[in-house]
Amino acid sequence: MRTSNLAWAGAICLLVGCSAAGGGGSTEPFGSGGGGGVAASGSGGASAGPSGGASGSGGTGGGIVIDSGTDAADATTTDGPGVVNDAAPDAPTTGCIEGGAGYQPGPRARTCAGATTDECSGAADIDGRFPNGATGNGFDDDCDGQVDEGCACPASASAGSTKDCWLVPATQADDGGAAVGWCTGNSKGSMACTTTGSGEFVALKWDGQCRGAQPPFASDVCANGDFDCDGRVGNSKTQDCACEDAEVECPTDPLLTSPYPNPATLPYINGASWIKNGNPANASNWRWTATGGDCDNILPHPSFQLFNNQNATGQPLAGVQAPGLGPGANQVGLVAGPGGAVNHDIYLGFALSGDYLVKGEFDLGGKHYECTVKVQVRAPGIRAELCWAPMPNDVDLHFARLQGGSCGQHGWFTTCSGGGGDDCYYNSGCAPGGGGQNWGYAVSNTNACHGWGSRRPATALCQNPRLDTDNISCFPNVVDPNANGLLGSFCAAENINLDVPRDGERFAIAAHAYSTTGTVRPHINIYCNGERRLSLGYDPVAGQQFPALLQSGADGGGDLWQAAVVRAVAPGGTLSDCVIEPVHSATPKVDRDGSTNACVDTNPQNGGQGTSADWLFRSGGAYPTAADDLCWH
Question: By residue range, what is the domain housing residue 563?
């Protein structure tokens, strides 16, 4: 049997208007036990969470609050042309603005190039400080919701490597190359280098998808902040921000949480607290939209879910899958409402790391409003994630150490007994029901392993490393990420986590076709402290089709995609960075690799007898010194 998962039971406060509590207090919507929680109004005492009663009696972890929602940096949203945070109707141009200071342009006026599918053609160079050249500049210069589309990756990049990007034109950047004002963090995301074509016609190009980034506001609003990112605070084009009261204020900072929250106390966003100058009870037609990451566009259904209740156990799903979402209108996500039980509270269940965008819309006083919140889901340490299409097929994730093993020979699968094997996978000690991998790492707190979306047994230790989900068989029509069991399993991604790697340690990541039919196309993400650092393989949004797995053979044979080697940078014992080397092939297989940017070996390549003990890393059984040493062809 092969089942597993991961969870984090620490509380996260997504409610605008709450704050982190210390000592015996708790945060709303739920906290670490003890006394009364912090109310939405900030008055303290008993919590006023939507689930009723006092919050503070449950939960096991402390709250994390990135934005309290009460500071002056919160803002209303306003509409305008182009890709913007299109929210509240434009404010009237008469009234207060006539007696105020009026509009003063900022030093970085937003300028957009003409629409193009190739920002490196020369026509999109709107700011002489940041020309696109042949490889792009990391900005959305034509303001279409994509970055560096059509641009080649630089020679220093490999397929799957990522870079920072901003969903603003280069005119909104400072001289150091970062977007200014509100856009510094909120408009920042990551994009991946992808392989286009195959054989003699292969090329490496940026995928154009700036994951986790929000576009700027069309204009500043009545709050202290530079929300249109023009380098000047409070210079609204439509209203005098010195005297106009904001009716709706959106949270302006990203929210931080971790995979696998407690299913009885899901984190939530309370949209009612966005309404600052009106009665929240009068808001109607609430609608919530959420988009996620790469695997949410590859799996039959997104790996996260929306709920109308804090306790998701036995509750109906609120989110319905929909295409055509996100800044580029090419993402798959979830939509809840309007109508039914959907209101100003939305509860969130996450199973994967990455950046998510959650948008709430509502009507109030004859106007339509919306606020978008960036949610950063961060699992600690090094995390490898595998998804594939089509489903159902049985593909396995492998996470192998490249140092310190006691076996005489080193390789994939089990090469010696006694817990000293190099490979963490479904049939090793790091499996959901296994006894541990015996790599010498301390067991993590169980809060990191159990919760919503987790398939690890409640009694299983939180081992390091650990396989959190083993997808053996699933049903593509099952939409609930919590569904488990061979008679009704959700088609989930597989994840392996190592929470606290040591400085300089190296690990190899691979995907194996255990039992598959036809052509299976896998995708691997590698996260460093929850930030996406590698996005490699099949990507329907970017049009990337390779690698391909064509042959399966249980542990003794079949196709093994050896994807990358990760080196931990952890001075003082704290992971601060990851150095990632994708694995290349010297003589690519046109049907499996597509190019030298991938390596799919078929059956054990060391002259063995076709058993799991014969999958060596390299001839003689030594550890590889470089990533490409893993590839046999």
Answer: 382-630
